[in-house]
Amino acid sequence: MLSLMLASFLPLLLLCRISLCQYSSDQCSWKGSGLTHEGHTRDVEQVYLRCSQGSLEWLYPTGAIIVNLRPNTLSPAAARLSVCIKPSKDSTGTNIYLDRNGKLRLLLREQDQAEGKVHCFSIREGALFIEAVPHTDISRRITAFQYELVSDRLRAEAQSPGAPCQPCSDAEMLLAVCTNDFVARGTIKTVGPEEDHASVSVEISHLYRQKTHVFVSGGVRVRSWTGNIKMPLQCGVKSGQGEFLFTGTVRFGEAWMGCAPRYKDFLRLYHEAQLQGTNPCHVETD
């Protein structure tokens, strides 16, 4: 009896080892190897990713895979989402297409992926068809990217998250504090150029909110955080200019600056709006 149960269980175990166990526990990420395709390179494997953000890593790519990016919801609003992918700068070995009902449209060539730029498309445009480029040596080839699902309205911002260098209006500033991915009070320590943007190193004295851990705590006994916020080079931000209220968005694990008023200016604006009853949300102030 025991041998019969084991015999029926083993195929399921092998199936798990080949496919299901390549996913993260919540199917946000997938990691696979083309070495399992060597004997049947004409097969096309289906990959399903069901989170609002995650990653894919395909080692030694051979043949092709189809990546279906779908939110884990049946809401009609899901049809109005866009998919944004950001390839790793070491990503190589494949061309990436959009596959809609068997018709392919080139999205990223192998050499384009090294730029590490964000590319977005509507979820209605189809799945990702990732096809290996024939190489005599596949041992150095790895295709890897991060993905995010965003609303069609935020698609342009996801591709170019650096906000224009102009002051926010009072209404925009108050709304940013209520809706942005991070809100933090602190100072600018250093500013350094990185390719086409500036990286602003900040020290945070009061962390109101952060979507992901872009700011790192200094320890249990130290009520401060540090981190880096990106913004366009042309903004000309400088260090040592007083205390600010930093707000902004998080894209692919990176913080991008939105409205950043001086803290004293924000306090004045906030208290005026509080007296008028026009604040969109409550913020703790000292």
UniProtKB/TrEMBL annotation:
Which InterPro entries does the entry mention?
Meteorin-like
Any GO BP: energy homeostasis
Family listed: Belongs to the meteorin family.
Signal peptide: which range, if any?
1-21
Cellular component GO terms, alphabetical: extracellular space
Species of provenance: Poecilia latipinna (sailfin molly)
List the keywords (alphabetical): Disulfide bond, Hormone, Secreted, Signal
Q: Which GO terms describe its molecular function?
A: hormone activity
- Compartments, as annotated in UniProt: Secreted
**Protein name, as recorded:** Meteorin-like protein
